[in-house]
């Protein structure tokens, strides 16, 4: 009896694994796909995939288009997906990677989100040493004079940043007042996937920033490393930059972003 029960349990687990593999494939081949293409994608016989599809359709996780006979994700899959998206809090998701980044580099690392006044610092992991850079929780960083603000500039829709940019260039004779220079810099940031500044916001302080994306490819936050020029080298091709990019990619992946898809830049 115990062996039979154990065997049945393993079979149920395997069936669940196959079902989730087919659901993932439906997502990857969305919005719809044929049975033959789906079977090829999951490397299973079409007859086996068809049996699982019937069960998924019955439970609402898949559906079949009567006109094309193609299959796609159903209403229940959408409901579960939306629930998962709603639970993705970038502060919670980024907390551990941010702490690990600080531990590896021993430089102050912080997370900023876009608030109603601009790039706002919402989580800080300070360096553990006598010489450190103090970044205040809740600080609003300038759009054009901080690496954090400039990364947001590169990825946010213009309507989100235009008013703030106008305010900043009106206050000082900023080099990014020129529309072409500003557009060129934003394009360069998108090409590199990060940005650095040397003493632009504060003399003797370097900063290196990279974006975090959500499931639909929009910039959700910016991770920044900041430190004194004498100790921290904000080289975009250096080891700190590579570690920063690894951290932002990990957080973006956890937020549901597909690295093979381009970010949503409008």
Describe the fold and architecture.
- This protein has 266 residues and is α+β, with helices and mostly antiparallel strands.
- The protein has 9 helices and 8 strands.
- Strands 5-4-3-8-7-6 form a 6-stranded antiparallel β-sheet, sandwiched between helices.
- It is elongated and about 65 Å long.
Tally of contiguous helical segments:
9
> What percentage of residues falls in helices of 4 or more residues?
40-55%
Beta-strand segment tally: 8
Secondary-structure class: alpha+beta
- The share of residues in extended strands comes to 15-25%
> What's the mean pLDDT score?
85
Oligomeric state of the chains?
Answer: single chain
Q: Shape, please?
A: elongated
Spatial arrangement of strands, main beta sheet: 5-4-3-8-7-6
How large is the radius of gyration?
A: 24 Å
Major β-sheet, in short?
6 strands, antiparallel
Regions with pLDDT < 50 over 5+ consecutive residues? Answer: none
* Intertermini distance: 62 Å
Written as H for each helix and E for each strand, in order along the chain, the element string is HHHEEHHEEEHHHEEEH
């Amino acid at each position: 009896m115990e062996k039979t029960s154990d065997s049945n349990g393993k079979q149920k687990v395997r069936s669940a694994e196959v079902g989730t593999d087919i659901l993932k494939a439906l997502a990857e081949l969305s919005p719809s796909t044929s049975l033959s293409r789906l079977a090829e994608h999951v490397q299973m016989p079409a007859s086996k995939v068809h049996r699982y599809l019937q069960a998924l359709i019955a439970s609402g996780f898949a559906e079949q288009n009567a006109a094309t006979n193609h299959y796609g994700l159903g209403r229940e899959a959408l409901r579960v997906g939306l629930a998962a998206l709603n639970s993705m809090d970038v502060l919670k998701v980024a907390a551990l990677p941010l702490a690990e980044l600080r531990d590896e580099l021993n430089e102050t690392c912080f997370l900023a989100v876009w608030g109603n006044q601009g790039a706002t610092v919402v989580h800080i992991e300070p360096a553990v040493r006598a010489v450190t850079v103090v970044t205040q929780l809740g600080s609003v960083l300038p759009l054009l004079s901080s690496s954090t603000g400039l990364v947001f500039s590169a990825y946010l829709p213009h309507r989100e940043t235009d008013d703030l940019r106008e305010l900043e260039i009106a206050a000082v004779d900023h080099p990014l007042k020129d529309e072409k220079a500003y557009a060129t810099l934003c394009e360069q940031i998108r090409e590199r996937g990060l940005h650095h500044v040397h003493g632009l916001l504060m003399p003797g302080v370097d900063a290196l920033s990279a974006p975090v994306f959500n499931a639909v490819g929009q910039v959700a936050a910016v991770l920044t490393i900041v430190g004194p020029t004498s100790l921290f080298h904000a080289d975009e091709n250096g080891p700190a930059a590579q570690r920063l990019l690894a951290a932002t990619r990990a957080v973006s992946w956890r937020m549901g972003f597909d690295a093979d898809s381009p970010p949503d830049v409008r």
